[in-house]
Every structure is written in structure tokens, then in C-alpha cells.
Amino acid sequence: MAAFFSIGTFLILLLLASAARGQRLSHKYYSLSCPGLQPLVRDAVQQALRRDPSLGAGIVRLFFHDCFVNGCDASVLLDDTPSFAGEKNAPPNMNSLRGFELVDSIKARVEARCRATVSCADILALAARDSVALLGGPYWAVYLGRRDARTGSRQAAAANLPSPGAGFAALVAAFAAKGLTARDMIALSGAHTIGQARCSSFRQRIYGDRNVDASFAGVRRQTCPQQTEGGGSLAPLDAQSPAVFDNKYFQNLVARRGLLRSDQELLSGGPMDSVVWHYSVNQTAFFADFAAAMVRMGGIGALTGSRGEVRLNCRKWN
């Protein structure tokens, strides 16, 4: 009887461990353990955007750069240490990511209410959704239950994040490697309807590309000299409405006014051009596809159950 109990107990524990590892994300994940979480995050984001609307684009970019490197696990938030080289200072991220202080602020508020309960990865996912919605974009149910990574990879950040000079095929391949379709890629690129880019990211486009509107290139050249080294000045990714989440980005592409080469490559004479044209005249369709793609992206490599941890400080592991 004792042997039977021991084996039975072992099997139950094995099943429980397996269930924990395979736990699914849920939009109700914190409904009992941290009620009021989502209004709290939304209020913090709203206060921050009132002071600086450009932070919204920073948070969305932060979420994207987190998910594309070993999954949505808050690894991008980790600070370097003498023995750890994380993702923050990888070439695609160095001097370009922002919003870390806002995540820290939200985390402090959440910890005061629900100690050691809500992961930094989930806070970032919620803040990205709220940033989009508060700037005029769609709202969607964020699936929660992610846990935070105990490490990060500078090498993976350098290898996995698409370049602003990438061509259409390279973009499709990068997103396909994460389980996302070409349509997902085009919809998610629509996040460039908010935010800014440095001169170094678009200099080659305004001086070397043929598929660029001449007057648009001329305006951008005024603040982005061809010979200057370094990052240079900033320019809006969508000059029509840089602080509003709308479909103007796709209208810019139709007019050959995409700021980055990787933007304009979405309209490159291939079978997916129709998606860009559709989004340019149908904001509702863009919003629906963007929200669905954000949910899919938010599930990439999510740590759940007993994997990872809930960090008390988003900048370092416990």
C-alpha cells in the first residue's frame, strides 16, 4: 500500500508539474490574485502620456523588441552587470529603446498592491496595449500569466531584430521565424504610425532609394545631412499624425513617403501590396488585424507555470 501511494503521489506530482509547464495565458489570470491590476496600469500609462505622448511609441517598441528575442519574457528590461551582457546594449537597442522608467514606475505601483504577483513581462504587455489605445488605436484583451526570464541574450538581440534597411523577403522571414505571417508583419509594422527614427536609420533611403517621393526626401534631407556620422536628428515615422495611432502610415507608403526602407518595402510590387492598400483606406480593418497580431506576438515564447520568475525589480532577477 505504501509503495502504491508513493508511486501514485509521484504520478500526481508529475502531472501537476506538466500542467504548470504547459499553462496557458488567460486574460483573467490576475482576476483573483491582483484585482484592479489593469485599471492601475492604464492610469499610470495615461498619466505618462499626458506628460510625453511619445512614450507610447517607446513602450510599443520595447514590447516588440522583448518578444522578438527569446520570447515575451521581459529579458529586454534587464540591466547589464559585470558578469552579464543583456539585450539593452545590443546594437539594435543601444540608444534607441525608451520607456524603462515608466515600466519601473508601474511595477512599483503594482508591487505596492500585489506583492510578488505580477510579472514585468505582463506589465509590459498591458502597457503596450494601453499605449496604443490611449493614442487612438484599438483595444484588445491581453492574455496574461507570463513569467520573467532570469537571463537575456545580447547575441540573440543582434541576430533576431529586423533592420530598418531590411527588404521585404527578409522581413517576412524574420516574422515567420517567430510564427507570424506576412499579413501579421504588415499589420504590426503599422505601429510606425507613432514614434520617431534617427537620421542614421533613414539616411540611405532619402539619399539612395528610387521609390521615394522627391519632396518628402527633400524635407528629410534638411535635417539629415548625407555626410554626417552618428545617429543624427529625429524625424517622425508618420509626419501626418505622429502622436495619433491611425492608418496614416499606410497612406504614406502609398504616397512613397515611408521613412524607413523597411517601411516602404511593404509596398514592393508583390502579392501583399493589396494589404497595404486595404489598410490605407480601411482603418477598421487595420485596427482589427493589428490587435489580433499583437495577441499572437504576445504569446511568443511565453514562460508560464514554474518556468522563470516574478521579478520584484524589472531591471534585475531576484
Secondary structure topology:
Blueprint: H1 2-21, H2 37-51, H3 55-67, H4 100-113, H5 120-134, H6 154-160, H7 168-176, H8 182-189, E1 196-198, H9 199-208, H10 214-221, E2 234-236, H11 248-254, H12 261-264, H13 273-281, H14 283-297
Antiparallel strand pairs: 1-2
Helix pairs in contact: 2-4, 2-5, 3-5, 8-14, 9-10, 11-13, 13-14
Could you walk me through the main structural features you see in this protein, from its secondary elements to its overall organization?
The structure is a single chain. The chain is globular and about 55 Å long. By secondary structure, the chain is mostly helical. It folds into two domains: 25-161, Orthogonal Bundle (Peroxidase, domain 1); 168-296, Peroxidase, domain 2 (Orthogonal Bundle), CATH 1.10.420. 48% of the residues lie in helices and 2% in strands. Helix 2 (37-51) packs across helix 5 (120-134). 41% of the residues are buried. It contains 14 helices and two strands; from the N terminus they run ααααααααβααβαααα. The protein has a two-stranded antiparallel sheet.
List keywords for this structure.
globular, two-stranded antiparallel sheet, 48% helix, secreted, Peroxidase, domain 2, oxidoreductase, mainly alpha, heme, EC 1.11.1.7, 318 residues, disordered N terminus, Peroxidase, domain 1, 2 domains
